[in-house]
Automatic annotation (TrEMBL):
Matches recorded under InterPro entries: LpqE-like, Lxx211020-like, PCuAC_sf
Protein name (record): Copper chaperone PCu(A)C
Signal peptide region: 1-19
Gene3D superfamilies to which the protein is assigned, alphabetical: PCu(A)C copper chaperone
Assigned keywords, A-Z: Signal
Pfam families in the record: PCuAC (PF04314)
Superkingdom of origin organism: Bacteria
């Protein structure tokens, strides 16, 4: 009986208490580039409030979150701090606004490949994603397959 109670205790410790689906759903894309590029990430928070603190990628020397603002025809980029992500809310980065700046690229980012990226959240910790690389002039995944005649 002693070994049976030990086995039950060991199984109780080894079994996870609950199995939960990931609370954060990450998508996005990155522009092809040499030297530097921009990634546009979307994050939907299906869990409790969190904050996006930063990002990293083995493909770039530096990775930071920036915001572009157009003031009277002059576009200025500034570093963005931590981005709040309330429960049930989303962050949607787009060209001309919030984006992840990738500088010091270790190799050119070529269309059709994928960029590994890690997002760092205050509560969720590290979340890994693999973003498709689109051509330099792309405005998003839907625009990548569109052909416009002249």
């Amino acid at each position: 009986m002693k070994s049976l109670s030990f086995l039950v205790a060991a199984l109780a410790v080894a079994a996870p208490a609950t199995a939960q689906a990931p609370a954060l759903h990450v998508g996005g894309w990155v522009r092809a580039g040499v030297g530097s590029s921009a990634a546009y990430v979307s994050v939907h928070n299906g869990g409790g409030a969190d904050r996006l603190l930063g990002a990293s990628s083995p493909a770039a020397g530096q990775v930071s979150i920036h915001d572009s603002q157009n003031n009277g025809g002059v576009v200025r980029m500034r570093a963005a701090g931590a981005l709040p992500l309330p429960a049930g809310a989303s962050i949607a980065m787009k060209p001309g606004g919030l984006h992840i700046m990738l500088t010091g690229l270790k190799a050119p980012l070529r269309p059709g490949a994928k960029l590994p990226i890690v997002l760092r959240f205050a509560k969720a910790g590290l979340v890994r994603a693999s973003l498709p690389i689109l051509p330099p002039g792309a405005q998003g995944p839907a625009a990548a397959g569109a052909h416009h005649g002249h």
